[in-house]
Amino acid sequence: MNPISNIWNHPKTSAAGVLIAVVTIASVLSQQGITLGKVGTGSVITLICGLATALLGLLARDPVSSVPSAGNPTAKLGALMLCVLLLNGALPVTGCSASTVAQDIVNWTPALESAVATVDSTAALLAPEDAPIFIAATAGFDAASNLLVVQAKAYLANPSASLLAKLQAAVVAFQQQVNASLLQAAKITNANSQQHVLNAINAVATVVTAMLALVSSISSKVAVAWMASQSTIKLADVRPYINEDKAAATLAGHYGEPVMLARIQMAQVELSAAQAGF
After folding, report:
1. DSSP label at 189?
2. What is the pLDDT of residue 23?
3. How much is the pTM?
4. Does CATH number 1.20.120 belong to domain 97-242?
5. For residue 47, what are the contacts with CB-CB under 8 A and spacing of at least 6?
6. In this structure, are residues 168 and 227 in contact, taking their beta carbons and an 8 Å threshold?
7. pLDDT digits (tens, 9 = 90+) for 124-150
8. pLDDT above 90 for 167
9. In a 3-state reduction of DSSP, which class is residue 86?
């Protein structure tokens, strides 16, 4: 696709992508102690972050149609993924209500159930010697998925501190199971089997990572620190086994946005998660 015509045809999405890139770069520079000078009581970098975030908020409040739609990419960007971009207090979260994020967490549950169902059917595609390894590595996926879905829906129905704590524990526990299964998949040497295994587990990993980011975005710093302390297998440990192309495609499909924008969002989420200790 011609990038110039794409920008012309989708000006709001293109503008949002540029603003997210600005926020991402400025956030990284700020975290590295680079300020680019002082402005008032703050720095140039924090001013840039604030302005870009404010403009993203304006885009989020400017729907492309008079009737809100679940498939409206601008609404998705503003109401949902902006919350994820500002994960763990890297920047002030404004306009992201717990109920909005809770709804997005629940919106991911069909994708999670579908991905886990694919895992259940993958063993039949593997070489006989590889199937037992895969089955053992993913044995807890069904129970963990069911628990996470139940906790997500319970929190959406009643967004209380106690139910949020249960949701935090459920998503971290599942994330750790997924990370462990990715490491186990590395032991499969048959190329065809390993491809099937990684494709299946990656689909689950993408959804769980998105849900982890969303849960973290509505959690206190103390709670996020606790969640990170429970993550003994870090994202960096499994990065070699993550298919970022397919993860970005899944994210883009879920939110109805360009893959390039999804990649930017993924980069910010991964940075924030690593800094939080996941």
Report:
1. -
2. 60
3. 0.70
4. yes
5. 39
6. yes
7. 999 999 999 999 999 999 999 999 999
8. yes
9. coil
Secondary structure E strands in 10-75:
38-39, 42-43
User: In the Cβ-directed half-sphere of 82, how many Cα atoms lie within 13 Å?
Assistant: 29
State phi, psi for 41 to the nearest 5 degrees: -95, 0
Task: Quote the crossing angle between the two packed helices 161-185 and 191-217, to the nearest 10°.
Answer: 160
**Buried b / exposed e across 83-103, counting CB within 10 Å, b at 16+?**
bbbbbbebbebeebeeeebbe
Per-residue pLDDT tens for 20-68?
666 656 555 555 566 566 666 556 665 665 565 556 555 544 444 434 4
Q: What CA–CA distance (Å, rounded) separates 98 from 246? A: 28
**Tokens at residue 225, please?**
């620190």
Closest CA to 271 of 196, 216, 201: 216
At 143, the amino acid letter reads: A
The neighbour count for residue 157, using CB atoms within 10 Å, is 11
Residue 80 is given by DSSP the state I
Measured distance CA(229)–CA(102) in Å, rounded:
23
> Do the Cβ atoms of 101 and 164 come closer than 8 Å?
no
Domain ranges of the chain: 1-96, 97-242
